[in-house]
Design a protein that fits this description.
single chain, two-stranded antiparallel ribbon, 199 residues, 8 helices, mainly alpha
């Protein structure tokens, strides 16, 4: 029941952000966005502009800040942080294919929902996070992609705030080329293994 309520709230929040208007920065801005200069606010209180992260709206960033505060040292590292957010699916893989991906039965907190909203917002975007979302969706479906991408965004947020470093996005072409090279290397290793087995 708690998982259903969590999914319902995520859906409602996503629908809310679909009613948007163009923001001067080029990002989409929901009608409930704060009237003050949010970028300056986050830069002053966190030391970095977290709104630069793809998909993260002003409202979502405020929800995350309210839930997590400014001291990220409460979590030893980013893995502990995403675990606290319940953004670590328990993947079951067979024959190299994902056959099951379930989250622990823990009610998602507002920060977790905000990161999922940010993930949902990038699925059609033409940058590396959008590409990552679509790849995860083809692998395990929409729900899996939202959680996996939210995990990425939460990791970026943690590192930015903890280490006081600005968002440095990956180049889409370089990201795709790196992924392709990794896939080629994996297939070459598999081929070598098959050759040894048939020799």
């Amino acid at each position: 029941m708690q998982q259903y309520e969590s999914e319902q709230k995520t859906s409602e929040l996503a629908k809310r952000d679909e009613k948007i208007e163009s923001a001067p920065s080029g990002k989409k801005k929901c009608k409930n966005a704060p009237k003050f200069d949010a970028q300056s606010f986050f830069s002053n209180i966190l030391g970095v502009n977290v709104l630069a992260i793809y998909g993260l709206s002003e409202v979502s960033a405020l929800e995350i800040l309210a839930e997590t505060g400014t001291d990220m040292s409460k979590w030893v590292n980013e893995k502990h942080f995403v675990s606290w957010l319940n953004l670590c699916p328990n993947n079951k893989i067979s024959g190299g294919k994902l056959i099951s991906s379930k989250l622990t039965k823990k009610r998602a907190n507002p920060a977790s929902l905000a990161f999922r909203m940010a993930a949902n917002a990038v699925q059609r975007s033409n940058h590396w996070l959008g590409d990552f979302f679509r790849r995860m969706k083809s692998k395990g479906g929409n729900k899996y992609a939202i959680v996996a991408t939210a995990n990425k965004i939460a990791t970026i947020y943690y590192k930015m705030v903890r280490n006081k470093v600005e968002f440095s996005p990956l180049d889409l072409k370089l990201y795709q080329q790196k992924r392709m090279n990794a896939k080629i290397a994996y297939l070459e290793r598999k081929l070598e293994t098959l050759k040894k087995q048939t020799a």
